[in-house]
Records
---
Amino acid sequence: MMTQKQQHTPGPWVSTESNILDSDGRSVALLAYRGKNPADPDGRPEAHANARLIAAAPDLLALLTQYITKLDDQSLTDLECKHWLDETWIPAVRDTIA
């Protein structure tokens, strides 16, 4: 597998009321409320769910990279792949975007 230099801000990232921040507290992205007034509470749940998903990107990328590396190394059987997905990937995604 060919490795590429990381071109994004390293994680972990966290979401706040109006930003996605890196581990040093610097803004990675600003939270916008898709066409809605930020003071309107109806727009916030979707915007915050989007923010959590964006903030999870470095962690999800790390998990996916780990999985792809295992596939490239052919170090996992089909059953081990399924187990890894069921026991590691899916719970991590659920926890990250919940």
---
Amino acid sequence: MNIGLFLRAIPLVRATVRLLLASAGGYALAVALAFLLARALPMSRAEATITASLAAILAMPAAAIWAYGAPRLWHAAAGILGLVALCGAIAALVGQPG
């Protein structure tokens, strides 16, 4: 195995991981945020769903900006995946919508 070829491919791998983190992680964050807000907002179900969906639309580009703007790849991954886990956990604790 040529180690020079492998070392030259590392920036491509990092860029690919950031791309996947921005797209899949951003989508997961948008879904988790919409799920949390739809359950937690003190409104009727229809209003809470619409409000949660509109707020979730903003989460995906914010996650993409963070995925490419974070100084280290693990900072980006920890930030996005941590928020996904946090939103999911809080949404599970809130319970069923009324």
